[in-house]
């Protein structure tokens, strides 16, 4: 146990116990970089985390559908640092809801062009 020892007027020393296990307060080592979508959190801003709970607090838990949070979970099973950049998805490709003004599962309104089922870029019939 740490103990304060009085030596002389105005001088004291303190023993610091370093024999116990140290806990990591932040990311350790060179972080991997993952770019992907997430449920919430800052978009287009690199955020470095030390463990999955830090990630989940910032970006939300994985729903099993988004590849980014799945990659984060797997990487942090064996590492202590990861930098994540959240990008916004294109949603369902349909125009925004007239009542709410939002596109389903998107961070922005989709433009005039949209990838078609055959892989070619074509007109988006749902664009505003």
Beta-strand share of residues? 15-25%
Count all strands and give the number: 7
Q: Into which percent range does the helicity of residues fall?
A: 10-25%
The radius of gyration is 24 Å
Q: How confident is the prediction overall: mean pLDDT?
A: 79
What would you call the shape?
A: elongated
Class by alpha and beta content: alpha+beta
Q: Return the CATH class of the largest domain.
A: Alpha Beta
SSE arrangement:
Layout: E1 4-8, E2 11-14, E3 32-36, E4 47-49, H1 52-59, H2 67-76, E5 82-86, E6 113-115, E7 121-123
Parallel strand pairs: 3-5
Antiparallel strand pairs: 1-2, 4-5, 6-7
Give the gist of this structure.
By secondary structure, the chain is α+β, with helices and mostly antiparallel strands. It has helices at residues 52-59, 67-76; strands at 4-8, 11-14, 32-36, 47-49, 82-86, 113-115, 121-123. The radius of gyration is 24 Å and the shape is elongated.
